[in-house]
Each structure stands twice: as structure tokens, then as C-alpha cells.
Design a protein that fits this description.
By secondary structure, the protein is of the alpha+beta class. The protein has a single domain, classed as Alpha-Beta Plaits (2-Layer Sandwich), CATH 3.30.70. The protein contains two helices and seven strands; from the N terminus they run αββββαβββ. Strands 1, 2, 3, 4, 5, 6 and 7 form a seven-stranded mixed β-sheet that branches. The chain is elongated. The two termini are about 15 Å apart.
Length: about 140
């Protein structure tokens, strides 16, 4: 398993503990009204930086996105307790169980759509920094 896959899988297990929402991994299909609030985690990008030409070390910054999808008269307000719980769960251990050297919140973006009720998709981005070997992206160093 690659280092970034390990991080995403771990974050998914954290999201599964958030009450009031159902967690999904890399879901693309629409969320039905009866499914309630959905929380979806996906990887977005991993820029790499080689630490030194003479070493086999690569610094990676995995950006992952957690999207909260909620509906209601004021969907961002409906989603707010879940957003707070997601942030708390993810940031509780800034090493993500030893999978990262550090974890930082990056940004939050709100998007609204007309659906069976007004819907909001709230994207929370985080950046997990970790180091691997240049020739082996499965090994955390």
C-alpha cells in the first residue's frame, strides 16, 4: 500500500466515527435525500520534493478533500455540527496514527445547488506531510 493510500484509508476510518453522517470513500454518484448527510474523503494531489540529490528521500504533501453533502432550508447550517466533528476527528492526531510528520487544515469551500431541497457541498482540504524513499512510495521514513 502506498503511503498516501494508507493516509486516506486511515482518514476514512476516522470519518466513520462521526455521528450524524455516513462516510464514503471516493464516492462520485449523487447522494440521495434519504441517505442524510454524507461525508466523502478523496485524495486530490501529491506534490513531491526531493530532499537532496545524494539521498533517497522524498518529501510529499498529500492534499486530501473531505466533502460534506447536506440538504435543508439552510444546508450549511445543517452541516455545521458535522463539519465541526469532522475537523475535530481528523485533527485529533496530527500524525494520523504515525502516517504523517504533520497535518494542516488547508481551506474550506462552500458550494450550493438546487436539489430535492437546497443542498450544500462543503469541501474541507487538509495537507498531510510525510517522507518516503524516492524509489519506494510505500515506505514511510
Amino acid at each position: 500500500m502506498t503511503a498516501d493510500e494508507s493516509i486516506i484509508a486511515y482518514v476514512f476510518t476516522l470519518l466513520a466515527t462521526v455521528s450524524g453522517a455516513t462516510a464514503f470513500r471516493s464516492r462520485e454518484e449523487a447522494v440521495a435525500l434519504q441517505e442524510g448527510i454524507a461525508v466523502i474523503v478523496k485524495p486530490e494531489e501529491v506534490p513531491y520534493e526531493n530532499r537532496a540529490a545524494a539521498t533517497d528521500l522524498t518529501l510529499a504533501n498529500l492534499t486530501f478533500v473531505i466533502t460534506i453533502i447536506a440538504r435543508g432550508a439552510v444546508p450549511d447550517s445543517t452541516a455545521d455540527p458535522v463539519r465541526q466533528a469532522v475537523h475535530k476527528a481528523v485533527m485529533a492526531d496530527k500524525t494520523l496514527g504515525g502516517r504523517a510528520a504533520s497535518l494542516m487544515p488547508h481551506s474550506t469551500k462552500w458550494d450550493f445547488e438546487e436539489a430535492d431541497q437546497t443542498a450544500a457541498a462543503i469541501e474541507m482540504r487538509f495537507v498531510a506531510r510525510y517522507q518516503t524513499g524516492t524509489s519506494d512510495i510505500t515506505a514511510l521514513i
